[in-house]
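pipeline stage [seq->struct] | target=N-(5'-phosphoribosyl)anthranilate isomerase | organism=Halopseudomonas laoshanensis | residues=204
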Amino acid sequence: MVRIKICGITRVEDALAAARAGADAIGLVFYPASPRAVSPTVARQIIRALPPFVTSVGLFVDASATEVHQVLAEAPLDVLQFHGNESAEFCNQFGRPYLKALRVKPGDDLNALAAQWPDASGILLDSYKDGVPGGTGEIFDWSLIPLERNWPLVLAGGLTADNVADAIARSAPWAVDVSGGVEQAKGIKNAAKINSFVQEVKRV
């Protein structure tokens, strides 16, 4: 079964809607430039409201180690997700499993790139858009994803209830990650869209 992460959660009620719908994880953004950014205090409130077995994931973009530690001191995240130019050495220092995000461009050797983070729990593939580290709302060419790979794929980038079944059929990911595709406004989720997305994933 393909796992599901609902990213860009900013409110307790949206986290609970994701959990009730059957999501496996929720994502909290600690990138100040994002319209979906949350403070560590809000993140802690959201995490404390989660029911059992829903994983909390914290997203960072080229944050300093001090900034990551400051967030962890207040918000007990289960998993970290790095969307910038972080090295494997940097990602490994926090005592948490981590995902490394790669923004896919034509010509990328994704197996070779993934190998640079051998300890990552998964490699998240997102759409490349110059100057935008993630959350573009745009899909990329799924045919660029190698079907022969030895790393767990988390597929992101413009996923919606309308295209996620096709995306899964083409790329066979371990998990899918959605943010804008289940929103009614940036950072505000829509429970009906979350339900539809989860149902489409589970239908595959």
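stage status: PASS
auto-comment: The first strand starts at residue 3 and ends at 6. The helical segments are 12-21, 40-49, 65-74, 88-91, 110-114, 164-171, 191-203.
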